[in-house]
């Protein structure tokens, strides 16, 4: 676990992905109807390991907890946990975890011909234009968001 201070009131907590243990949970063969109810089958098809489902590149994957509301319209809320893969290249439109002048943030990434634009998913926040004078590092691409319903 690593703590990174963003400001006096905000701290991002990074966790490495532990894929050495398996947590096999039951996966029912009958899907859950999101429309009209369907008859329930009490049949477990197999066990599901969330590590296998959520993590493609274990050595390059970490977790980070969201602090703030700048990405709420992307269904990313304060307290959610992000699964972040460092081995995936940032391309236009993906959500990334990055560092700007030593401060961490999560934003949608757009590479323009002469600059990089980081956009929030909340109209209350302004996009960030990355200029040549800024120290900018992409830490990884967000692959999953884990949150309570």
Written description of the protein model:
The protein is mainly β and 149 residues long. The chain contains one helix and eleven strands. Strands 1-2-5-6-11-7-8-9-10 form a nine-stranded antiparallel beta sheet, with no helix packed on it. A two-stranded antiparallel sheet has the order 3-4. Strand 7 (95-100) and strand 8 form a beta hairpin. The radius of gyration is 18 Å and the shape is globular.
List its salient traits.
43% strand; disordered N terminus; 11 strands; 1 helix; mainly beta; 9-stranded antiparallel β-sheet; two-stranded antiparallel sheet; 149 residues; 3% helix
* Secondary-structure class: mainly beta
Strand order of the largest sheet: 1-2-5-6-11-7-8-9-10
Count the strands?
A: 11
User: Tell me, what's the shape?
Assistant: globular
Rg for CA atoms: 18 Å
Low-confidence stretches: 1-10
Which bin fits the share of residues in helices? under 10%
Q: Helical stretch count?
A: 1
CA(first)-CA(last) distance: 25 Å
Mean pLDDT: 80
Quick synopsis:
The chain has 149 residues and is mainly beta. The chain is built from one helix and eleven strands.
Give me the secondary-structure topology.
Blueprint lengths: L1 E4 L5 E6 L7 E5 L15 E6 H5 L6 E5 L15 E5 L9 E6 L2 E9 L4 E4 L8 E3 L5 E11 L3
Antiparallel strand pairs: 1-2, 2-5, 3-4, 5-6, 6-11, 7-8, 7-11, 8-9, 9-10
